[in-house]
Amino acid sequence: MNDVLDVALRLIVVFVVFLTFPLIVGQTEHKVMAHMQGRLGPMYAGGFHGWAQLVADGVKFAQKEDVVPAAADRRVFQLAPAVALLPYLLVLVAIPIGPGEGAVGQVVDAGIFFVLAVMGVGVLGSLMAGWASANKFSLLGGLRTAAQLLAYELPMLLAAASVAMAAGTVSLPGILNAFEWWWLPWQIVGALVFFVAGLAELQRPPFDMPVADSEIIFGAYTEYTGLRFALFLLAEYAGIVVLCGLTTVLFLGGWHGPFGADGLGWLWTLLKTAILAFLVIWLRVSYPRLREDQLQKLAWTVLVPLALAQIALTGIVKVAIN
Amino acid sequence: MTLAITAPLAASAPQGFLSPTGVEIAFVLVGIATLAAAIVTVTTKQLVHAALWLVVALGGLAVEYLLLTAEFIAWVQVLIYVGSVVVLLLFGLMLTKAPIGRSPDADSGNRWAALTVAAASAAALVWVVVDAFRTQWIDLDGAVQGSTEVTGSILFRHWVLPFEALSVLLLAALVGAIVLSRKNGDSEPAPDGTTQPSTADKEQR
To answer: Where found, per UniProt (chain B) (predicted)?
Structure first.
């Protein structure tokens, strides 16, 4: 009975994190973008900086009519948002937030593989949405999503493999237990490749060609309204949380910090994740959108060679140490 | 196969065929669902639905691996097949005009031949597996026998040569694909008649 309670408690905590963190990131994005671009936006709802605007937006989404286009493939169209969102919930279960058994939803033996595999499934949701909408813009968005995923999956995997080689394990808590501070400069190239490829996989600016509003309206999500549209948006922000958490765990040492690693380890994880999420938002307001050919070129001629070089470096250093 | 070689399987305990445990029941149920999804994949007349049912079938296979304690293989299955191969498949389908609804020409005249080949290969595989693992049972309470560590050490100690041979085979396939896709390569002086239609064909699309 105690085991059941333990598992239930962990799952509830993960679920609450899954429901709140993406919203926090979304709200932070609104406010940070507003301040960086010197435009205020809604400032009155709720008082301080219009924090209740998020609630109002949620109510608005819930009230909208749930439209399925007449020519659409109904079942696939309606299933797509769930396929896009649920993988991120599963990934969160495996990300350790602090030292010890208690600070992770579930210790997965092949953690890196689990996380990357399940994250890859989320893209199927965009593809399903793009095809089932019976809309040319949606189809183009779906095509671009697929092309982008195929290009950026490889460097992401290679960069993660480099960390796994360094740690000698593919379990996420195992990697954190093996972490030393000098891994930071050692794996910095891999970290950059992983983060950039992850951004591209989430279709965040500057890699938002699949949802480029000036060309194809909103890509695969053009025909969606109301709650289903909100679920896609939530999937994007959950993706940011997952990507930043993963980069923190794999490359930035997770709960390791200059001090207080025993009791306050989880704070270090949260702090690093938050800084990375801020970086994601910052990149959105700083860089123009990459063109489709530039996207592919960046992946195949820059990121893949860099990731391979990082793996070679990891191997050499590893052999030299032993 | 790999499990049978190193990991000592608990074969001593009497295992009743007619009194299955929960894991065995789950295994059979997932197997039935996987088989059903696979059959729908090849019989549905809607092209994209076939690809999506393939996702269900491959995912069911991953769950079967998990139930057999082969965690690493299960996640690699999801990563490679669901995450990449199906995405590539859908990408290809979207490039064609995969219509919403039924494709009337989705039937092939070869279906009886295909059914024969499928039945023959299934029979061969079932026979081999049954013959190899007839009386062996996985001890679920002991150490995990399909963990990444076990799989890795077996792969790179006992099966290095087949592994490397496979990678050479894949490399050859990759090079072959690149050669085939370069229609207008300068190393291969094509006759005038063949290059012209191919470019015109591209423009048409």
So the answer is: Cell membrane
Greatest mean pLDDT range, A39-43, A64-68, A157-161, B155-159: A157-161
A123 touches chain B (CB under 8 A): yes
Q: Least CA distance to B78: which residue of chain A? A: A117
**Residue A44 CA from chain centroid, whole number:** 31
A153 to chain B, closest Cα gap in Å: 8
- Chain B CA closest to residue A77: B100
Does A239 contact B at CB distance below 8 Å?
no
Whether B7 is covered by a domain: the verdict is yes
pLDDT tens per residue across span B1-52: 444 444 444 444 555 565 667 778 888 889 999 999 988 888 888 888 888 8
Query: Taking Cα atoms as reference points, which of A1, A176, A21, A22 lies closest to residue A99?
Result: A176
Q: Is residue B28 part of a domain?
A: yes
Q: How many domains are there within chain B?
A: 1
b or e along A156-188 (b: 16 or more beta carbons within 10 Å of the residue's beta carbon)?
bbbbbbbbbbbbebbbbbbbbeebeeebeebbe
Interface predicted TM-score of the whole assembly (ipTM), two decimals: 0.79
CATH number of the domain to which B24 belongs = 1.20.120.1200
State the residue range of the domain holding B99.
2-144
Give per-residue pLDDT as tens, B70-110: 888 888 888 888 888 888 888 888 887 777 777 777 677 78
The 10s digit of each residue's pLDDT in B103-124 is 777 677 788 888 899 999 999 9
B4 burial level (CB within 10 Å; 0-12, 13-18, 19+):
exposed
Residue of chain B whose Cα is closest to the Cα of A126: B87
In a domain, B193, yes or no: no
How much is the pTM?
0.81
Q: Is residue B181 part of a domain?
A: no
Of A116, A142, A157, the CB nearest to B94: A142
Cβ of A121 within 8 Å of Cβ of B78? The answer is yes
